[in-house]
Design a protein that fits this description.
Layout (H helix, E strand, L loop, with lengths): L6 E6 L5 H10 L5 E5 L11 H17 L2 E6 L2 H14 L5 E2 L5 H7 L4 E6 L1 H5 L1 H10 L4 E6 L1 H9 L5 H16 L4 E4 L8 H8 L4 E3 L2 H11 L12 E4 L3 H12 L5 E6 L6 E3 L2
Parallel strand pairs: 1-2, 1-3, 2-9, 3-4, 5-6, 5-7, 7-8, 9-10
Antiparallel strand pairs: 10-11
Helix pairs in contact: 1-10, 2-3, 8-9
The structure holds D-glutamic acid (DGL).
Length: 273
């Protein structure tokens, strides 16, 4: 796996994974990256586990074909549904996943009350349940499923009055319960963090685990594999020009994105021709 022109492969259902990718690129500027956004299937949050596993597997295969020596599942939802599955299907590939940053949030909280904003699949997943069992005893954790925030982040519409009202609906009960930290347990949410912070005020910390995930990516890069020299590559199963616009606005990167299509059985990804 990897070998010549070895890269870091990064996947998400949409632009959310760019919040992780930018930290990886900051920490490992010499490592080429290849990013896939499965915007055709967005949102992943309400989908079934087998469906998310199927898409994650197809994207991972594509990333390996592009030279990925490490794959980062830059999506809490895909990690919740498919991390163990992917590790079984690709046993020799280092795979970095995401889980809600409950531990650092509880460590920082003085009130002992923290909120977690996530998708439905993340909230219902075994990864999150284990974290609650491990770290939340004697604390109050308020889990808020916030599917509309994914759509708002994709559209970058967080400052419209409608979006503000939706955000308020999600976070005000968390703040009213005394939370002083909120975990952004979906990689889309750092891209609406400005609007969330406005609503919750400066006394509540928003916890984004992207930097920790980038560090973990550096740790699992195989020591015997030389990083390739390609420039970063961006792919989407959705609209390429809209993706490029968001990429530029959210990360400052001006790059061309290539379009991908799924095979008829939605298992194999190929270049849109
Ligand atoms: N960015 C994703 C996450 O971290 C998923 C959003 C979605 O497609 O529902 O959970």
């Amino acid at each position: 796996m990897g070998g010549f022109n070895a890269k870091i492969g990064v996947l998400d259902s949409g632009i959310g994974g760019l919040s992780v990718l930018r930290e990886i690129q900051r920490l490992l500027p010499e490592h080429p990256t290849v990013f896939v956004a499965d915007q055709q299937h967005l949102p992943y949050g309400p989908r079934s586990t087998p469906e998310i596993q199927q898409f994650s597997e197809g994207i991972t295969r594509f990333l390996i074909e592009q030279g990925a020596a490490v794959v980062v599942v830059a999506c809490n939802t895909a990690s919740a549904a498919s991390l163990f599955y992917l590790r079984e299907v690709f046993p020799t590939l280092p795979i970095v996943g995401m889980e809600p940053a409950l531990k650092p949030a509880l460590a920082e909280s003085r009130s002992g009350v923290v909120g977690v904003l996530s998708t439905q699949a993340t909230a219902e997943g075994v990864l999150y349940r284990r974290l609650l069992e491990r770290y939340a005893e004697g604390k109050q954790v308020i889990t808020q499923v916030a599917p509309e925030l994914v759509r708002i982040a994709e559209a970058q519409s967080q400052h419209t009055p409608e979006s503000r009202a939706i955000i308020r609906g999600y976070v005000e009960p968390i703040v009213a319960a005394g939370a002083d930290a909120i975990v952004l347990a979906c990689t889309h949410f750092p891209f609406v963090a400005d609007a969330i912070q406005d609503v919750v005020g400066a006394g509540v910390r928003l916890i984004d685990p992207s930097v920790a995930v980038a560090r973990q990516t550096a740790r699992v890069w195989p020591v015997d594999v030389e990083p390739g020299r390609d420039t970063p590559a961006y792919y989407t199963t959705g609209d390429t020009s809209l993706f490029q616009t968001r990429l530029k606005a959210l990360t400052g990167i001006g790059a061309t994105a290539a379009g991908l299509t799924w095979s008829a059985d939605e298992r194999v990804l190929g270049l849109r021709g």
